[in-house]
Amino acid sequence: MFSPSSPISITEERPTRTMIFRKEEISGRAFLELTREDFRSIGFALRTATIFAGFANELMNKKYEVIRHIKR
After folding, report:
1. pLDDT digits (tens, 9 = 90+) for 24-63
2. Cβ(29)–Cβ(59) under 8 Å?
3. What domain of life is recorded for the organism (predicted)?
4. Where are the domains of the chain?
5. What is the DSSP letter of 42?
6. Computed over its alpha carbons, how large is the radius of gyration of the chain?
7. Integer Cα distance of 38 and 42 in angstroms
């Protein structure tokens, strides 16, 4: 349990975002396919889940724009 006199900080008690991505083996395309609900289900706060999902969506849309441009 965390207490003000404890040498362990709050951030050390809970997994970091990087640790969650590693534990869940999320990288590359898997990240792009995750939804806000997916991010929430693996432990991200609502605000963080919303930001990540929006970012993943933007990247996926840019990817498809590049593919369409190349195919012309």
Report:
1. 998 888 999 999 999 999 999 999 999 999 999 999 888 7
2. no
3. Eukaryota
4. 10-71
5. T
6. 17
7. 7
